[in-house]
Hints:
Elements: E1 25-32, E2 40-47, E3 50-61, E4 66-79, H1 84-94, E5 104-109, E6 121-126, E7 141-144, E8 148-149, H2 155-160, E9 172-173, H3 174-186, H4 189-194, E10 198-204, E11 209-215, H5 218-231, E12 240-244, H6 250-258, E13 263-266, H7 272-280, E14 284-290, E15 293-298, E16 303-304
Parallel strand pairs: 3-6, 4-7, 9-16, 12-13, 13-14
Antiparallel strand pairs: 1-2, 3-4, 5-6, 7-8, 10-11, 10-12, 14-15
Helix pairs in contact: 1-5, 5-6, 6-7
Amino acid sequence: MQPQPTDHDFVTDLNHPERPRPGPSFPKNIQRFRRGHTLASFEDVVATEEPMEIRIIHRRPGTGTIGEEITDKLSVTMRTPGFDFELVAGFLYTEGVMPSVDAIETIAYCTDDDIKQEYNIVNVTLRPFVTFDVERLTRHFSTTSSCGVCGKVSLDAIHARGCPVLPPGASVSSELVETLPDRLRESQVLFGQTGGLHAAGIFTVDGNPMVVREDVGRHNAVDKVIGNQLLQTELPASDRVLVLSGRTSFELIQKALVAGIPIVVAVGAPSSLAVELAQDFNVTLVGFTRSGSFNVYSGAERILL
Length: 305
């Protein structure tokens, strides 16, 4: 059974022995080619990718009373099963669907009698007087493992959300920055088995990992670590570093900004919008990080030489 947060009364788990929970990876018989040799049978391990639907259960406001209960199907994302509740919490928070962890009454897998995919549907019940107007959203969220939430390509949208410019304060040594990709890699167990997963980790400025998660989607991996910290009431993470196993897109800087994370260190390159957003909101953005070198695209004052 996959681990899930259990120290919160609004998080409930589900276990049907006759309906096994999908794992994050599974064995697959393949044919392996080697030059000069014939094809040979081989058992490989591949990363699991399955859809997960997020449903929001809320109440329509009544006249001084709690109105009728409404269920809205908000999003479908392709993800690697595991830490689903963290993924849902992080996604809803970083996309502005809910203002804080206090908005959640329960997070649980769907248990409707006519549903056979319990582990691929997560219900989030909002507290009775939390305002949720699905019509206010310009679209239902529809994500894939490769691109995250489509359409968030305007910096104006982030300014409109009222995200503050991050203050100075947290800093990290250049020597430590060089080591962060390797420290992240040490926790990438599933990547070691499959070679097919992204990873994100939240570290202290001393280099200690607070949480590391893997997923077929880089956006999902970030949502999982932010969701973990949200459920543990550790946000805003104003003295933390977000470490990414790949490139940095606009959406990933957006998520770090909403979580209050001031430093983002990535193995790969940033996009132009990621750099612009980081500069506008004083996020330290580091890319092409490896032993002996890295590039700083924004917020160099937080890097101590």
